[in-house]
């Protein structure tokens, strides 16, 4: 990347490709979205999408360019604009609701340096592998319960609904100290928070509303805030050894963390940590079903499980994008990005980039190194990555010895979501070991 000195014309992405990359429904069909990404990587790795109803944006599809942008959080901001893609009407709705901001949430993803670093440091140590590793026994208990539940289906079930969906939520909620009876509410709110574009996830009163996703997001956020306000109050009065207590009692520049910032933190962790992980677990099993030599390898040698976890996350890439905003004119991948231009980082595309991954559509747990960017890159790189990988490793360690074979019992179904997506359903038939 170099400071820009020369003007170049902006390559405009063909309309049907631009629409495909932006539309939530494309992400429910791997063939559609990955074809579009492949075309872009080959023909226009940095191109501008001009789609009716949206502000123009650069679509960034190559692994190297995504890393280049994300590693420099001063040149490319998250918070000057919405770091999540929205149409103009939805952003206008959010601005109206927040009194001018398109962010609406004081969480890490909506912060830039130097404030971002200050807030990230509050919990960075807690999420390091050394600290997280101490939770292994606690997490294993939850994994064993989930596997027991799965095996109770005796041969046929939905891998998402009956297995993968609940475990990561239970882990996060246990670490937070949230009582198990509140978990269904947390699950529902997260699905509304991320799934507003999918008609099956929308609240009834919002069907057919053009800004349904923004409204769902706002309504879910309000419910989250009410819930966490009460819990944070409890933890201030009676501190426990949990993450909620750590955040609720944090201080920035000597002053207690604000209500919005504390709630922003809780919501980020509560929402970021489970749909992503459960989709990656499901993707791991789907990958082994489609490419069964991997199943055999894991059965023969459990030491392959860390490779399975990384490949599951790469192949699934449950986070479809984050946006960045250029703070000055700058060149990336041979294109001149102008100050205030918006860029969409397409992680699933970077994770199928032929320049980095051999035969990238293949599910292969022996890839080494597996330099995927499903967790993003640079200062905003996923805070919970070590926890996600630990949870997944433990779950597969507990599950795999109990199944002798597994196959699809129906077509997999993916969520219609251009932000956080993944599996809605994976019907499976299995034989116990
Ligand atoms: C950020 C992916 C699990 C908490 C992110 C980002 C991605 C991501 C792509 C944005 C990175 C960037 O902007 O460069 C994933 C995936 C997961 C996962 C694929 C599971 C397989 C988790 C878990 C937690 C978590 C388990 C917490 C318990 C966060 C937080 C951020 C974040 C707080 C914001 C970090 C920041 O802006 O500084 N994640 N995540 N994630 N993730 Fe995750």
UniProtKB/TrEMBL annotation:
Domain of life: Bacteria
GO molecular function: heme binding; iron ion binding; monooxygenase activity; oxidoreductase activity, acting on paired donors, with incorporation or reduction of molecular oxygen
InterPro entries for the chain: Cyt_P450, Cyt_P450_B, Cyt_P450_CS, Cyt_P450_sf
Key words, A-Z: Heme, Iron, Metal-binding, Monooxygenase, Oxidoreductase
SUPFAM superfamilies: Cytochrome P450
Annotated Pfam families: p450
PANTHER family linked to this entry: CYTOCHROME P450 YJIB-RELATED, P450, PUTATIVE (EUROFUNG)-RELATED
Family designation: Belongs to the cytochrome P450 family.
Free-text function comment from the UniProt entry: Cytochromes P450 are a group of heme-thiolate monooxygenases. They oxidize a variety of structurally unrelated compounds, including steroids, fatty acids, and xenobiotics.
Stated name of the protein: Cytochrome P450
Species whose genome carries this gene: Croceicoccus mobilis
């Amino acid at each position: 990347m170099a400071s820009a000195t020369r003007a170049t014309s902006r390559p405009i992405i063909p309309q049907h490709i631009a629409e495909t990359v932006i539309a939530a429904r494309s992400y429910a069909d791997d063939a559609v979205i990955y074809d579009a990404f492949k075309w872009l990587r080959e023909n226009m790795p940095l191109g501008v999408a001009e789609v009716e109803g949206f502000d123009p944006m650069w679509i960034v599809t190559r692994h190297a360019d995504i890393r280049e942008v994300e590693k420099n959080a001063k040149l490319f901001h998250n918070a000057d604009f919405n770091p999540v893609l929205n149409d103009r009407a939805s952003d206008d709705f959010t601005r109206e609701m927040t009194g001018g901001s398109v962010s609406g949430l004081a969480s890490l993803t909506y912060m830039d340096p130097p404030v971002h670093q200050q807030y990230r440091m509050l919990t960075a140590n807690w999420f390091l592998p050394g600290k997280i590793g101490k939770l292994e026994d606690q997490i294993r208990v939850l994994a064993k319960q989930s596997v027991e539940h799965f095996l109770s289906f005796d041969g046929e079930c939905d891998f998402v609904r009956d297995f993968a969906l609940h475990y990561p939520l239970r882990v996060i909620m246990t670490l937070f100290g949230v009582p198990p009876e509140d978990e269904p509410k947390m699950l529902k709110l997260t699905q509304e928070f991320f799934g507003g574009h999918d008609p099956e996830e929308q609240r009834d009163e919002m069907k057919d509303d053009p800004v349904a996703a923004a409204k769902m997001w706002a309504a879910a956020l309000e419910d989250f805030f009410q819930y966490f306000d009460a819990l944070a109050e409890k933890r201030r009065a009676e501190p426990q050894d949990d993450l909620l207590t750590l955040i609720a009692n944090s201080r920035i520049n000597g002053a207690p963390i604000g209500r919005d910032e504390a709630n922003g933190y809780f919501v980020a962790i509560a929402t970021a940590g489970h749909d992503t992980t459960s989709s990656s677990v499901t993707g791991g099993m789907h990958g082994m079903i489609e490419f069964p030599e991997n199943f055999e390898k894991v059965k023969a040698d459990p030491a392959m499980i860390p490779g399975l976890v990384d490949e599951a996350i790469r192949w699934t890439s449950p986070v479809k994008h984050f946006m960045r905003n250029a703070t000055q004119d700058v060149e990336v991948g041979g294109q001149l990005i102008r100050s205030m231009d918006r860029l969409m980082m397409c992680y699933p595309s970077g994770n199928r980039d032929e320049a980095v991954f051999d035969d990238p559509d293949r599910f292969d747990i022996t890839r080494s190194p597996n330099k995927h960017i499903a967790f993003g890159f640079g200062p905003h790189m996923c805070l919970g990555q070590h926890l996600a990988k630990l949870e997944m490793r433990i779950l597969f360690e507990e599950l795999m010895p109990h199944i002798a074979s597994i196959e699809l019992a129906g077509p997999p179904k993916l969520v219609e979501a251009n932000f956080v997506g993944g599996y809605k359903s994976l019907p499976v038939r299995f034989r116990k070991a």
